[in-house]
Write a structure and sequence with these properties.
The protein has six helices and 18 strands. It is mostly beta strands and 469 residues long. An eight-stranded antiparallel beta barrel has the order 1-4-5-8-9-16-17-18. A six-stranded mixed beta sheet has the order 3-2-6-7-10-15. Among the domains are: 106 residues, no CATH class; 201 residues, Beta Barrel (Porin), CATH 2.40.160. Helix content is 9%, strand content 32%.
């Protein structure tokens, strides 16, 4: 009993030394002394400090403290709560001086660290990565198409063309067999744009392309030698081999283009790109096609030569001197389609042939509503009456023109994008001819790169130190 009482007194004294102002969550239990003195010495040293009147009574039988009185204890934290110290001040205590405040005063700012060392989440929302863009677009396109004269002159001695510059011929065209020029070929269509990335577009398009020439005479280059100056069939200068030609191969196109562009300049709301690409597609010909009618003519008894002619008077008397040079093919009043018995064509459809196997047709045909005297077709400055040509029986459609043609598209492009929403595109290249045009595009839907208004920012979790219990 005498040894137990001093020990209890010593324990109570040590517990009272705890800092009552410390947070209840960081309270530490008293650690045992580094070295424990023998019980006799501790009793001798501490006994005078103990208050006999406050010592608890002990049970005589067991030697334990009596239930009627309790040993001194630390006041319950709930009974005497202390205000938490300011977050910037660490807690102080006899054993925990300098330790982190368990209330979280030393917790890290969730925006203090992370990708880009952002100062706030609001700053993160304002950041848009450079590769964020609208991935889808629709557009309307249009432009002009030209088949240059120098291409056609490589296999034609005479031809017509639509070059979008009126009807007046220059010497360059005349030297290359251009006999008539009028009209303009064009294209229109709609397109869907899938932006694979900021610099590569995959474009699907559907549209209509006009492809026709003014009516006129086409003559193969092998029918007119380089040194020819006038009609002379014996020397390879045969104007009578010309065909009155009607061309309309306009088509509906379906196409897929792959266009790459490099960004040349970029600002906050504007981006300018240059590039090019290629495409493949199909053209479904819906124009009337290609029809040709031999120019015809008559035999000149003075030299027994078959010559192209024109009516010399109202009675239809042939004028053998009117259609002599290749430039005359551009004037339907000088070189006029005339009915003749073509040995290569069954003009009346009866199939009759002579002993040599040549097709035999009537030498004359009756006058029609427009077919004038002398069996000349009715013509004006713009062309000749198709019904008169049909009456000849020699007007035929070119059957080697397929109903569907391949379209190979070579592309050069310059595009200005405004606010990643509107695209102004200038485009040129070659498909069935050289073309130049553009398109107006509208982009939408996001989905390219990283969506606007978001970033890859993720705030780290707060790192708190709660001390030890």
């Amino acid at each position: 009993m005498r040894r137990t009482l001093p020990l209890l007194t010593l324990s109570a004294s040590l517990l009272w030394t705890l800092d009552a102002s410390a947070s209840p969550f960081s309270m530490r239990t008293a650690e045992p002394p580094a070295t424990e003195a023998p019980a006799e010495e501790a009793a001798a040293t501490e006994a005078p400090a103990a208050d006999p009147t406050s010592a608890p009574a002990s049970d005589p039988a067991t030697g334990a403290p009596s239930t009627g009185s309790e040993a001194p204890t630390v006041p319950a934290p709930e009974a005497t709560p202390e205000p938490e110290p300011a977050p910037s001040e660490p807690s102080e205590g006899p054993e925990g001086e300098g330790e982190e405040d368990p209330s979280g005063s030393e917790a890290e700012d969730p925006t203090a660290e992370g990708e880009g060392d952002l100062e706030s989440l609001e700053d993160a929302r304002d950041i848009v990565t450079e590769d964020a863009y609208n991935q889808h677009g629709v557009g309307a396109r249009g432009g002009l198409v030209v088949v240059p004269t120098w291409i056609l002159s490589s296999f034609l001695a005479s031809h017509t063309n639509s070059l979008c510059r009126g009807e007046e011929l220059n010497q360059f065209g005349l030297d290359r067999g251009l006999s008539r020029m009028d009209g303009c070929n064009w294209y229109v269509g709609g397109e869907y744009i899938y932006r694979r990335n900021r610099n590569l577009d995959i474009v699907a398009s559907l549209g209509w392309q006009s492809m026709k020439t003014p009516d006129g005479y086409w003559l193969d280059s092998d029918e007119w030698a380089d040194g020819c100056t006038e009609h002379d069939p014996a020397n390879g200068c045969n104007l009578a081999a010309a065909d009155y030609t009607e061309v309309n191969v306009s088509f509906l196109f379906v196409e897929a283009d792959f266009i790459g562009r490099a960004t040349v300049a970029k600002g906050k709301d504007i981006e300018f790109q240059l590039g090019g690409g290629a495409g493949l597609g199909l053209g479904i010909i819906l124009g009337k096609g290609v029809f040709q009618t031999p120019i015809g003519g008559a035999f000149d008894s003075s030299d027994s030569t078959f010559k192209p002619v024109s009516p010399a008077d109202q009675n239809g008397t042939p004028d053998f001197e009117s259609c002599r040079e290749i430039s005359d093919l551009g004037d339907f009043q000088r070189c006029t389609p005339h009915y003749f018995d073509d040995p290569d064509t069954d003009q009346n459809g009866d199939g009759m042939t002579n002993a040599a196997g040549d097709l035999i047709d009537p030498a004359t045909i009756p006058d029609g509503d427009t077919l004038g005297p002398g069996m000349f077709a009715e013509c004006d400055d713009q062309g000749c009456n198709p019904s008169d040509l049909d009456a000849f029986g020699s007007r035929f459609e070119q059957e080697d023109i397929p109903p569907v043609i391949p379209v190979v598209n070579l592309i050069l492009s310059a595009r200005l994008i405004v606010k990643d929403t509107v695209g102004i595109n200038l485009q040129g290249g070659f498909n069935t001819g050289f073309y130049f045009g553009g398109s107006l595009q509208y982009f939408f839907g996001g989905g390219g790169g990283q969506k606007k208004g978001t970033t890859s920012f993720s705030a780290p979790k707060a790192q708190r130190s709660y001390g030890s219990f």
